[in-house]
Amino acid sequence: MAGSTTHQATAKDREARLVVAVDGPSGSGKSSVSREIARRLGAVYLDTGAMYRAVAWHCRSQGVLDDPEAVVAAVQNIDLALSVDPDVERVVVGTEDITEAIREPGISAVVSVVATNRAVRELLVARQRAEIDGHRRIVAEGRDITTVVAPDADARILLTASAEARTARRSAQLGGTVDATALAEQVSGRDARDSSVVDFMTPGEGVGLVDSTELDFPATIQAMLAEVDRQQAVNHPNHPNHPEGDRA
Ligand SMILES: Nc1ncnc2c1ncn2[C@@H]1O[C@H](COP(=O)(O)OP(=O)(O)O)[C@@H](O)[C@H]1O
Ligand SMILES: Nc1ccn([C@H]2C[C@H](O)[C@@H](COP(=O)(O)OP(=O)(O)O)O2)c(=O)n1
């Protein structure tokens, strides 16, 4: 049964190369869910959204956000360190710890300026691929990981939820402090802008879909791990979950 071996994974299973790619819209649960499945799978965790946010913060602090060429130059020169330990959230540019700063509404409001710049995307996609290549087991999440950054990943999943569920989750996450109009802009408005450069609302070919609208957090984790198992079985004939493989 798909999912069963995740919980019986041997030490050897947890040493094997594994790349899991997760995409989805704002508030679908990508970051929290990917972080947790990375822990369960003994993998590192790459938050590519944090990279776009760090770049937006850097360009804003340099005062170049409205100059696309200067934005690209700033990204070429950025000294960015991002923790990939699922238990350590840390983003540093130069000597400045911006872990908290990149989550502020002021950054959410301008991050699409850099995320819709195609030259910026090329630079960040290259960095993300190098990061993925540099780790044996990794869960990477964002908007274009299943389609552009890691189309050859062992498992690729689009995590969705209804717009209502996503807005409610974001509202709860922000402690109910943001009014409904501002929240709708932060969730759906930003997604609409970002969708102009990448499609993260419909699964690409071979990408599994997990809809968490009716699932709580633990049930979402179970559904994601089951989907990782299912795809590994399909993609790797020697995997113990393969329908025709040796399961002894
Ligand atoms: N299935 C779920 N049910 C309820 N809340 C969830 C679920 N998945 C995630 N959350 C919560 O929703 C909020 C947004 O999740 P987050 O991981 O930040 O989403 P994203 O990275 O897609 O924007 C967080 O507070 C998270 O704990
Ligand atoms: N691979 C990625 C990851 C994020 N982005 C963009 C889309 C978002 O507006 C920003 C921030 O992403 P993030 O995942 O932190 O966004 P959420 O707050 O979780 O909705 O970066 C992207 O274009 N491509």
UniProtKB/TrEMBL annotation:
Residues 20-228 form the Cytidylate kinase domain. Its main location: cytoplasm. It is found in: Cytoplasm. ATP binds at residues 24-32. The keyword Transmembrane does not apply. GO terms for molecular function: kinase activity. It comes from the Bacteria. It catalyses: CMP + ATP = CDP + ADP; dCMP + ATP = dCDP + ADP. The keyword Repeat does not apply. Keywords: ATP-binding, Cytoplasm, Kinase, Nucleotide-binding, Transferase. Its EC number is 2.7.4.25. Belongs to the cytidylate kinase family. Type 1 subfamily. This is Cytidylate kinase. The gene is cmk.
